[in-house]
Amino acid sequence: MNEDTWLVVPLYNEGTVVGDVISDARRTFPKIVCVNDGSKDNSAEVATNAGAMVVNHPINLGQGAALQTGLKYAMNDPAAQYFVTFDSDGQHGVEDASRMVQRLRTEPYDVVLGSRFLGTKVEAGALKRAVLKAAVGFERMTTGMKVTDTHNGLRALNREAVGKIRIRQDRMAHGSEFLREISKNKLRYVEEPVHIIYTDYSRAKGQSVWNSVNILADLLFG
């Protein structure tokens, strides 16, 4: 059991879906904090009943703010050494998260970044891949980091990394800010191939091409 690891899960009107996500993840990661970022349904209650700790934002502050809140909460646990950012809509695999934490345990890295483009199976459409690859090019120019997937929400970080990273971008471009913080603080990083599960639900909740276009707009003009 990963008693020294916390999953940090932003929560946005996920309804019953988050219950399945939390129940499945707790078999491997018993410590999970969900940040309820102004959900107007019963998502927070569902997450609590599934075994997660829930921290509430009174209003919607954005995913970047939710992650910062969740990481700060988890850092209050003195036993915590590893932290995983994990989406609540079912698109991430617990097996991938577990493998990423194991790399932090056994290899000299501070951050492991999930990449959907290093694996053999990429389900994103051609236009979405093109937009995301444009974001990759932008980040390589601005941060110097040789990454293949700049906006994958699955990340594993050790305690040193979380103590140094500060996320101030509240919208979707917080993924870029993560990379800039890694670069600025000279944290050791590596990418890990992961599989993103594109269900009808996850697409409806923000995995559309337009969401990727919004990320680019945030990068260029935000």
Written account of the structure:
The protein is α/β, with parallel strands linked by helices. It has a single domain (5-221), classed as Spore Coat Polysaccharide Biosynthesis Protein SpsA, Chain A (Alpha-Beta Complex), CATH 3.90.550. Helix content is 45%, strand content 17%. It has a seven-stranded mixed β-sheet with strand order 3-2-1-4-6-5-7, sandwiched between helices. Helix 5 packs parallel to helix 9 (209-221).
Keywords:
alpha/beta, 7 strands, seven-stranded mixed β-sheet, Spore Coat Polysaccharide Biosynthesis Protein SpsA, Chain A, 45% helix, 222 residues, 9 helices
Write the layout of secondary structure elements.
Blueprint: E1 5-11, H1 17-26, E2 31-37, H2 43-49, E3 53-57, H3 63-75, E4 82-85, H4 94-106, E5 111-115, H5 126-143, E6 155-158, H6 159-164, H7 174-184, E7 189-193, H8 200-207, H9 209-221
Parallel strand pairs: 1-2, 1-4, 2-3, 5-7
Antiparallel strand pairs: 4-6, 5-6
**CATH A-level architecture:** Alpha-Beta Complex
Number of helices: 9
Kindly, what is the distance between the CA atoms of the first and last residues, rounded to a whole number of angstroms? 41 Å
CATH superfamily label: Spore Coat Polysaccharide Biosynthesis Protein SpsA, Chain A
Outline, from the CA principal axes?
Answer: globular
Q: Please report the total strand number as a whole number.
A: 7
